[in-house]
Write a structure and sequence with these properties.
The complex is a heterodimer. Chain A is an alpha/beta fold. Chain A contains 9 helices and 10 strands. In chain A, the strands form 2 sheets. Chain A has a 6-stranded mixed sheet with strand order 6-7-8-3-9-10, sandwiched between helices. The longest helix of chain A is centred in the middle third of the chain and has 14 residues. Classes of the chains: A alpha/beta, B mainly alpha.
């Protein structure tokens, strides 16, 4: 099987700190890939490197054989690589509908300055479809800034999936959520795995071990171990470095 | 196309102003109204950047000045007829906006504000120094070519009413253009960038390119107002390129309501009226203007239009 994401000898330092240190990684399709590691392990830096927020000091990133290493953020996005952020981030002055609308329109590269936005029936249809799928019908015309945290997270997921992306990177998707909201998001992500490549960073171990098919453990910017949740759970090295030396109830 | 009552009412009033004003007061107010309309377009330029893309420019006077000098130099040095001279103003402002924009829109927030001031100052002092071209502080005076001349029948802006309708027509066209552009996918992209530029780039918007295009459009709008003002005053002067002029425009736009179509026009109208009414009685009229601006910013941060919207469900948008 061919990996959809291939990372070769990637390094990035901030000042003297090696956030990502000669990291090589291959992620394979048809499974939920999770990246875990203690604070400062370089998880979010890795996402920032993949999505073009920052440029690596050395190393290469390939997505389906396309090199991403030096592409700007918007071009990486237009390749079908979407991302949710750790601190949920949508367009607050726009309604839920408008948020989804602009996301799809922008993905189509549409910057027509003269055609009225109401004259795009296909976009409208797709937006309503997604709103229904997420169960956000009641909030369609409410400003995103007025939504609850869980609904903003759902909207953000909606903005990721409306373009039918090839890969979605979830940065702590259930961070700060109630158990009910977590449940909703986990089931949504699990069902998405059938149609698109998924990589998640997550702190909540219960969630990770329940959802993930493949786990990569990072420590100090390098790969410590990778394998199924079972393998990771019983890996002595991971236990020591990541979980501490005490018993783990995973 | 829907007809919005506030727009239609405002347009009708403005169209009838040359006949209403002599009935209720001194015909001199028609000139004041012309001036308000010209500066509204300038405030709209500032609003286009600040209200729609989130870039606060203190340098729009630079493009206003280029609009003025385009017309002034076109007429006095190149002896151009009316229309080519009138187009030369906004054209040179737009080109200038493209050149400065390439550098300026790499920055945001206070860095952007500062670089726009710097550009504005550079060209202000350049215009002061290059006396042979710009006339420096004294500026260039010129006489108006005819608007058109058809078989001995001439129309010229020397007629106050003609001048008024010419100005009104051009500025209404600009506002209409802004309205069209802001209800398009392009306009939505600008709002997205204003709201959250990180998310905007994550959904595939080329933030730099769109900011640059908005900067150029705003430069064009400022250029149009500068060209109109040159035709109105029949002169062009470096003093209008000073950042003080930009600052005034920023205050008008904010008091009127940024991010709204008519806010800048309303803010401009209120302030120029205060200036005209008070300055003939009291020389410290700027004091009232300042106090008023502070009150609006504190008590109605969304400006006069925001206040209007709050108290009536169907205000102008």
């Amino acid at each position: 099987m061919k990996p959809f994401l291939r990372i070769e000898n990637l390094s990035k330092s901030f000042g003297g700190v090696k956030a990502v240190n000669n990291l090589s990684l291959e992620l394979f399709p048809n499974r939920i890939n999770a990246i875990i590691g203690p604070n400062g392990a370089g998880k979010t830096t890795l996402f920032n490197l993949i999505t073009g927020f920052i440029k690596p000091d050395s190393g290469k990133i390939f997505f389906d054989d396309i090199e991403l290493t030096h592409l700007p953020i918007h071009e990486i996005s237009l390749l079908g690589i979407k991302r949710t952020l750790q601190i949920k981030s949508v367009f607050n002055s726009m309604t839920v509908y408008e948020n989804l609308w602009i996301t799809l329109s922008a993905h189509q590269g549409n910057v027509n300055p003269f055609k009225e936005i109401s004259r795009y029936p296909e976009i409208k249809r797709r937006v309503n479809e997604i709103i229904e799928q997420l169960g956000l019908e009641h909030f369609a015309n409410i400003q995103a800034g007025a939504l609850s945290y869980g609904d903003v997270a759902l909207l953000e997921i909606g903005m990721a999936i409306i373009t039918s992306p090839k890969m979605i990177l979830f940065d702590e998707p259930v961070c700060g959520m109630s158990p009910a909201e977590t449940e909703k998001v986990v089931s949504k992500i699990t069902s998405l795995a059938k149609e698109t490549h998924i990589v998640i960073i997550e702190h909540d171990m219960d969630v990770v071990f329940k959802m993930a098919d493949e786990i990569v453990v990072l420590a100090f910017g390098s790969k410590l171990a990778s394998g199924t949740p079972k393998e990771i759970g019983s890996n002595q090295q991971v236990k020591e470095v990541y979980f501490g030396t005490d018993e783990v109830d995973a | 196309m829907k007809i919005h009552l506030p727009y239609a009412g405002l347009l009708l009033t403005l169209a009838l102003a040359p006949w209403i004003i002599p009935i209720i007061g001194d015909p001199f107010w028609l000139s004041v109204l012309t001036e308000i309309i010209i500066w509204s377009c300038f405030a709209a330029s500032i609003n286009f950047l600040f209200g729609y893309v989130g870039l606060l420019s203190f340098g729009q006077a630079l493009f206003f000045g280029f609009g003025m000098y385009g017309v002034g130099i076109g007429i006095s040095s190149f002896q151009l007829p009316f229309w080519p001279a009138f187009f030369l103003g906004p054209f040179s402002a737009t080109v200038m906006a493209l050149i400065t924009g390439i550098f300026a829109v790499r920055l945001t927030w206070h860095y952007f504000a500062i670089i726009t001031v710097v550009f504005s100052l550079i060209f202000y002092f350049l215009a002061l120094t290059l006396k042979s071209i710009t006339g420096g502080d004294d500026g260039i005076n010129f006489s108006l070519p005819d608007l058109f001349n058809f078989m001995g029948y001439t129309v010229s802006l020397t007629n106050t009413t003609t001048q008024y309708f010419f100005t009104l027509g051009v500025v209404v066209l600009c506002f209409w253009l802004i309205k069209i552009v802001m209800s398009s996918p392009y306009g939505r992209c600008l709002i997205a960038i204003r709201d959250n530029d990180v998310r905007a780039s994550l959904i595939g918007i080329n933030v730099y390119k769109l900011r640059l295009s908005a900067f150029v459009i705003a430069g064009f709008l400022a250029g149009v107002s500068g060209a109109l003002f040159a035709l109105f005053g029949r002169y062009a002067s470096a003093s209008y390129m000073f950042y003080h002029v930009s600052g005034e425009g920023v205050v008008w736009a904010i008091v009127g309501g940024v991010g709204t179509l008519l806010g800048p026009a309303i803010g401009t109208g209120v302030f120029i009226l205060i200036r005209e009414v008070v300055s003939s009685h009291w020389q410290h009229h700027a004091l009232i203007v300042g106090a008023f601006a502070i009150c609006i910013v504190i008590f109605a941060p969304e400006g006069i239009v925001g206040l209007w919207k709050k108290y009536s469900k169907r205000g102008p948008k």
